[in-house]
Design goal:
- It contains 9 helices and 16 strands.
- By secondary structure, it is α+β, with helices and mostly antiparallel strands.
- The protein folds into 2 domains: 157 residues, Gcn5-related N-acetyltransferase (GNAT) (Aminopeptidase), CATH 3.40.630.30; 176 residues, Gcn5-related N-acetyltransferase (GNAT) (Aminopeptidase), CATH 3.40.630.30.
- The strands form 5 sheets. It has a 4-stranded antiparallel beta sheet, sandwiched between helices.
- Helix 4 crosses helix 6.
């Protein structure tokens, strides 16, 4: 059984082993000599651990055997930001990787940092290291680029304290739906840079900026023109049904997802949505759908149809159910079984108001 627990003093000596395995070895290269961890620039991550501000950590044990560790220190090392930001290191022994242990370690460490009132945490990672995508999925952003590595930073303000198993109404009411405009350009480009690192099949499709015909990203102003055409004529869409793409904005600045509202029903329903990977599982999908249902009501759409892209997409299905959706039928589309849900807005009130 896997157990994630807080680091204790007797664990400090095994950090040497985890420090060694945290060192990135590019494909085709031999592992470094063991004494590499004696170099001052590396040893600083564990030297006299437990004696410095920001020393904090968690251990992963499998059947009582330590197999991974994640820890932080406030030190002038590779990923240093400032003396209020702990820098994170993580290591899972090679034979135990690709089991989700790294994610469990990180999430537990975030909780520990949150309880100690830290606002953010940083790290450094080699550009060649596939772990870059792992950190992006966990909500890290690239804040500095060096010749061979990225400096990444994660805000802990988005972490839900496990003392609460829900996001309260104040948090949900911090969201708003906005039609894209020029003021969103920098934020749109920021999240797409990160999102494209993680996923190729970004949803909703209209959120994408890459043009296969041009083999390049569409300039933002041109992308806005396409959005305007979608809203007015729908001439470029396969359905030829006009639709509106809304950004879901948190705290009037951060794009956390988007949702497309078809102005009429199509074989794939009225609404298609997506939340950025680093904000999934926090209840924002449920809130965004509630706000979109208000838009449907304003357009006179009282029976809203939604078709998740897969019967296995349990998160999307739960979001629909949270907003009163019921399964009405199933059909075959492109060889896949698609479930159609309906949310009846007649005589109902939308819980969230803006």
């Amino acid at each position: 059984m896997l157990v994630i627990r807080q680091i204790i003093e007797k664990d400090y000596k095994i950090l040497e082993e985890f420090l060694y395995w945290s060192i990135f070895t590019p494909p085709g290269f031999n592992l470094p000599e063991r004494n590499v961890i004696c170099h001052p620039s590396i040893r600083i991550y564990i030297d006299k651990f437990g004696s410095k501000k920001g020393d904090n950590g968690v251990i992963a044990e499998l059947d009582g055997v330590p197999v991974g560790a994640a820890w932080t220190r406030i030190i002038p090392a590779f990923g240093h930001i400032d003396y209020n930001t702990p820098e994170l290191a993580i290591s899972v022994l090679p034979q135990y990787r690709s089991r989700g242990i790294g994610s469990e370690l990180m999430n537990e460490l975030f909780q520990s940092l949150l309880k100690k009132s830290y606002k953010q945490t940083s790290l450094a990672v080699q550009k060649e290291n596939q772990a870059v995508n792992f950190y992006l999925r966990l909500g890290y952003n690239i804040v500095k680029e060096k010749e061979e590595e990225y400096i990444m930073l994660k805000s802990l303000s988005t972490i839900t304290n496990r003392n609460h198993n829900y996001i309260n109404n104040n948090a949900l009411n911090s969201l708003a739906l906005e039609i894209p405009n020029l003021t969103h350009q920098l934020e749109y480009e920021r999240i797409m840079d990160n999102w494209e690192h993680i996923e190729g099949n970004i949803q909703p499709e209209l959120m994408r900026r890459y043009s296969k015909k041009k083999n390049a990203n569409i300039p933002f102003e041109k992308w806005l023109e396409y959005c305007e055409d979608d809203r007015t004529t729908g001439s470029m869409l396969s359905t030829h049904v006009p639709c509106t793409l809304y950004f879901c904005i948190k705290d009037q600045k951060e794009i956390i997802g988007s949702i497309v509202l078809n102005h009429a029903d199509t074989h794939r329903g009225h609404l298609h949505a997506g939340i950025v990977p680093w904000h999934r599982g926090k209840g924002y999908g449920t809130a965004m759908l509630a706000l979109a249902l208000k838009k449907c009501r304003e357009k006179g759409i009282m029976k809203v149809h939604i078709t998740p892209n897969s019967k296995e997409n349990s998160a999307a299905i739960q979001t629909i159910l949270n907003n009163g959706g019921i399964l009405i039928d199933e059909f075959i589309d492109d060889g896949c079984i698609i479930s159609r849900y309906e949310i009846d807005l007649s005589g109902t009130n939308i819980a969230l108001s803006k």
